[in-house]
Amino acid sequence: MTWFPTYLVTSRHLTIIKAGLYAVIPYIGAFIGVLIGGAVSDWLLRRGFSLGGARKTPIIAGLLLASTIVFANYVESINAVIAIMTLAFFGQGMSAISWTLVSDTAPKELLGLAGGVFNFFANLGSIVTPLAIGFILAATNSFSGGLVFMSAVALVGMLSSLSYQMLESSTPGNNLLILHHPSCR
What we know:
Layout: H1 4-10, H2 16-46, H3 51-66, H4 78-95, H5 99-105, H6 111-140, H7 144-170
């Protein structure tokens, strides 16, 4: 989200001081989302949900919420923009629980390598996103396409997580269905 303050100044015409103040709010939403995502996952586990369901439910829900960033293209009010961005950042924070999948699934003797590979691929998004938004901005002179791009990436992530979850749950002997509770057997 390195582009966010610039977006507030150039597209929403805020002064740099106001942009700095407003830019903090969505990051507070992300902070809360990280905590909520972890708490929801642990709560689902305590309620008897499968490990896969308890971990992936906040990821899928979070990425769906993150995709709402595109709606900032359709509002004029800076308060509405900040509210939408805060919801999207909150969702992105919820999906950060994906890190638990590494320790839940990797063999103990390969946990360091698995964590490194996971981090490598996770950081590719940190490289590609600012470049993609920069190219979109240069081509269109607008951040609108960048917001569409980020929403699409979040939806692709959500759909791939959901597809993987459904594939796991359809494997014979595997009960990793999202929100699968023992009482549903």
